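Sample A.
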Amino acid sequence: MAFATGGSGTDASAEVAALKLSLEKEQLEAELEELRDKRERRKRKRDGPILYLNVGGRVFQTTRETVNIHPNSMLASMFSREFVPGAADDNGNWFIDRNPELFKHILEFLRTRMVPPRSVAGKTLSRLHNPLTVPGWKMWGDMGHRLPASR
């Protein structure tokens, strides 16, 4: 069986190489488009009214409005339009390197404006020697709130 190459073997090799390059180019363009889409989704996620906070590996959702309830707090300053926190996880969530068990009480306080009772906060709060010295808890003292007495 004879095959007509229409030219030398070098021409066929060049055609194969060109085809491979064309396929690689298409793959790279698709990857680039996917990266652009991912970057745009992250930007919308990070700049939108809903905040996605990865606190110590646990993701919390809240609003900019909630974190800005107390404008002088560390959390409010982190998400003001003037200051942009730098670290984000692979999903575009803001990363805060703190204890999520403590943070959930801070977020609940911001949502309800009430210090959680020890029965709700459980051992997390009772383990703390002085909650006002824990990073992120400073705002409680700044607002004149004190934790309820141990029961």
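Sample B, a different protein:
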Amino acid sequence: MAKEYGQACPVARALDLVGERWTLLIVRDLLHGPARFQDLRTQLPGIPPKLLSDRLRALEEQDVIARQVYSEHPPRASYSLTERGRGLGVIVGALATWGRAFVGKGAGPTHAECGHVLQVAHYCPHCDARVDPTGVKIVRAPRVPAGRTRRRRRPRRRQPRSPTP
């Protein structure tokens, strides 16, 4: 895995997991359903086989994809998104919506049923209302002093008290 940002920010942590080159394109292609290694190589022209293999391994370790072996000799596997990986569908769709302006008309997410272009919007379930992007605040987790981690502390062992005279 690449060097991590080391920030207590949900955006930074998400990028720690899926921010390397090619990773979200692999997720994009697996959103359509399971695919074999060779299928992914065909769908992602220019990705070196070793890099694809490394990215698939990292995504599997992060429980973003699942690997199903369908042949032992020679070894062959199919890859599919886990529930955690399918959660990236909204993110990939939002990136596709934003990127639409850079690739031309007709690109980006569309409604499979009617074929019309989709929009992405923030929604607050508490208020039951759409939220303008200017009304969105990204909240970071509390800072931890350098050298400390966010792991749960184990209770300290109590030293037996010496009898008082």
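Observation for Sample B: Strands lie at 35-36, 65-71, 76-81, 122-124, 129-131.
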